[in-house]
Write the structure tokens for this entry.
Amino acid sequence: MINVEQRDRLSIFHMRHGKANALDTEFCMALTARLEEHRSSASQALILTGHGQIFSAGVDLLRVLDGGSSYLTAFLPALRTVFEALFCFPKPVIAAINGHAIAGGCVLACAADCRLMATQSGRIGVPELLVGVPFPTIALEIMRSITAPQHLPAVLYGGATFDPVRALERGLVDALVPPDTLIQQAVASAESLTALPPSAFALTKQQIRVPFLRRVCEDGAQFDVTVQELWEAPTTLTAIRAYVARTFKRPS
């Protein structure tokens, strides 16, 4: 699911889970485990990327429909855990967005310290409300951390996905690079951050994250109970089923 390539002091996480790197319980747990392994490894930074034309298409909605509330009982905590593990990772994280980064895939990318997106590679955004599901608190705070305040309501309420140029305008990505140099540019960005004193970088990153994590800590216990209830509600599953029917055909 997560193939790790070592380049000197850097680790490149190649996400390879099905055709779309859809987020399910197993994938979330695998990525969390890899992050935990690398917290204390000799690697000084990591790069997260997908394969083909997909960075990550977000939550595996077919698994949600198949498993219903019993599946969501395990999945949503795993999703929250991987988001927080990536957002709080003490070393530099670069998202090399090679293609579509939709919904949870967008949140994964936005949890990084720097986001590079390949030109003409796909779209990025969070259509959760169009699907009919609310944001876990950690996901909302990750989006709040990188989206300019004047754009945040439109990005969340509108549920639009943006091409690379419009994503850059809204701060969802930091730079656009040619597809054939994406990893090269990501390596350069990672190396520039690893040149900083690691302890000072880790502390500064922690300080930057504190306001958002405080809300996760203080509000998450309250809101995430309701998030879980809403995801599991029959009306929500009906909305997800309708979204899936509109968006893509289920294999026979």
Summary: The two ends are 25 Å apart (CA to CA). The chain has one domain: 2-183. The mean pLDDT is 93.
